[in-house]
């Protein structure tokens, strides 16, 4: 078996073992480390699921979604790529009231 393919398969298996919550938590820690501070908008989020390379994240309102997308999305994608080894799409879901 090709070494690269084998490592890729191992990475996919490792990722499958991690739950969305764990991956999101790791990503948020990485983003906050790069910011050098805690970001309240990020703290208001929670991961809901990771399916087919899409991480669904619940946010409390449109304002929080907009702030995260405008100010942190690139850092989030980079953190997720470092954690999962793949490009992960983030889908924000506005929490039902």
Indicate the topology.
Blueprint: H1 3-17, H2 20-35, H3 40-43, E1 46-51, E2 54-59, H4 62-71, H5 73-84, E3 89-94
Largest sheet: 3 strands, mixed
- In DSSP terms (H or I, runs of 4 or more residues), the helix count works out at 5
Beta-strand proportion:
15-25%
Rounded to an integer in angstroms, the radius of gyration calculated over CA atoms is: 14 Å
Total strand segments:
3
Helix percentage range: 55-70%
Termini Cα gap: 51 Å
Spatial arrangement of strands, main beta sheet: 1-2-3
Low-confidence stretches: none
Shape: globular
Please trace the helix and strand order, writing H or E for each element: HHHEEHHE
Class computed from helices, strands and strand pairing = alpha+beta
Summed over residues and divided by their number, the pLDDT gives a mean of: 86
Mind explaining what this structure looks like?
This protein is α+β, with helices and mostly antiparallel strands and 97 residues long. 59% of the residues lie in helices and 19% in strands. It is built from five helices and three strands. It has helices at residues 3-17, 20-35, 40-43, 62-71, 73-84, and strands at 46-51, 54-59, 89-94. It has a three-stranded mixed β-sheet with strand order 1-2-3. A hairpin with a 2-residue loop joins β1 (46-51) and β2. α2 (20-35) crosses α5 (73-84). It starts with a helix and ends with a strand. The model has no long low-confidence stretch (mean pLDDT 86).
